[in-house]
Write a structure and sequence with these properties.
11 strands, alpha+beta, 2 domains, 20% strand, elongated
Length: 387
């Protein structure tokens, strides 16, 4: 019973390390996947971010981007490969006797290449549909399920604000976005159709830009900033009326948050390991005291101080390692339980299992050395007389 209670500190310590690493690694992996779902080498230009009459607004608070802005970026910046003007809104859509409230996005025909978003079936609309404000729609998996169930939606009519569109394609599911929104609950139409037939308006919410390479992200971001400031007649010292973020900046922001969370959880787990080590040291000291006569007998029949040192050190390491192994299994089990109860993703890197095992062994050596050293220094005559 005392041995089990001694190992509990190490079990909880190592279990806390594994569980915390699994939870943070899973969250980081999910965020990286969501950022990757934006596409490759993507730069997002949002309208808004202005100061006027003492009133300040962030991105999306004002329609400050135009189609001419998007066309100029595509025409004048050599490091840009794809530009997709974006118009966004929400509307009721219907098919047959089914209806659904969803997000409507107007984009260019290249949007799906920029987002690296393949089709489950069908295909995208073309440049001709964009030029003529064609009534062609691409839908996400959630919309397809809600409106058509198990039926094939290709070629069928979907009414957006009572305007009929033909479904040309269904997208591969992408899951939740960084903001926790269902990326598959979406209808994508040509941006000209969105502006003229469905959502109205003459300004853009976002301009999606793809740089030719990762190395060009920062230079292209600066070129877009300079170009838009010039086009919007923003004088030096004045705030931009737009906001620009690169895919890398978004990734760095979320990774820094994940690192802070990891450090906090690691600190808590480290304290647990220290407490577990102190528990082992305490019990080993008690064990040395209780077994003083045994130590004296061993020394009397020829055992040396090194033999006694190794004996007690091995006992301490064994307690620590067994507790560590149980802690690893418990930590993985706890992380899986959290994942099943909360749908929070978890991932246990193999390297951290090795680190946890090594840490428990080191903790056993450190916590067991002093009691073992104390046992090895006992005088055999005094030990034999000890009661």
């Amino acid at each position: 019973m005392r041995t089990i209670l001694t190992m509990l500190g190490m079990i909880f310590g190592v279990g806390a390390v594994i569980a915390s690493v699994s939870i943070t690694s899973g969250a980081k992996s999910q965020v990286e996947g969501q950022i990757a779902s934006l596409g490759q080498n993507v730069i997002l230009v949002w309208s808004g971010n202005f100061t006027k009459g003492g009133v300040r607004g962030g991105w999306g608070s004002a329609g400050t981007l135009t189609l001419n802005d998007a066309e100029t970026i595509k025409r004048e910046l050599s490091g840009v490969t794809i530009v997709s003007p974006e118009v966004r809104g929400s509307a009721q859509v219907a098919a047959g006797d089914q209806d659904w409230f969803t997000t409507i996005i107007g984009e260019s025909a290249d949007y799906f290449d920029l987002r690296q978003w393949p089709f489950a079936e069908g295909t995208t609309f073309g440049d001709q549909d964009v030029r003529t404000a064609g009534k062609i729609a691409v839908i996400g998996k959630t919309v397809a399920t809600q409106l058509y169930g198990n039926e094939d939606p290709l070629g069928k009519v979907i009414r957006i604000k009572n305007v009929p569109f033909i479904v040309s394609g269904v997208l591969i599911p992408k899951g939740l976005s960084l903001q926790g929104q269902d990326q598959d609950d979406i209808v994508i139409i040509p941006y000209t159709s969105a502006m003229k037939r469905v959502l109205g308006g003459t300004t853009l919410r976002t301009i999606n830009v793809q740089a030719a390479s990762f190395d060009l992200l920062a230079p292209v971001e600066q070129e877009i900033t300079d170009l838009l400031r010039q086009r919007h007649l923003i004088t030096p010292g004045k705030d931009d009326d737009f906001t620009i973020r690169t895919q890398q900046e978004i990734a760095d922001f979320f990774n820094s948050t994940a690192r802070i969370m990891s450090l906090l959880l690691a600190a808590v787990a480290g304290v647990s390991l220290i407490i577990g080590g102190i528990g082992i040291m305490n019990i080993m000291l008690v064990s040395v005291t209780e077994r003083t006569r045994e130590i004296g007998i061993r020394m009397a029949v020829g055992a040396r101080g090194g033999d006694i040192l190794v004996q007690f050190l091995i006992e301490a390491i064994t307690l620590s390692v067994i507790g560590g192994v149980i802690g690893i299994v418990s930590g993985i089990g706890f992380s899986k339980l959290i994942a099943s109860l909360t749908s929070w993703p978890t991932l246990t890197p193999v390297i951290w299992i090795g680190i946890a095992s090594l840490s428990s062994g080191i903790a056993g050596i450190i916590s067991g050395f002093y009691p073992a050293w104390k046992a090895s220094k006992l005088d055999p005559i005094d030990a034999l007389r000890y009661e």
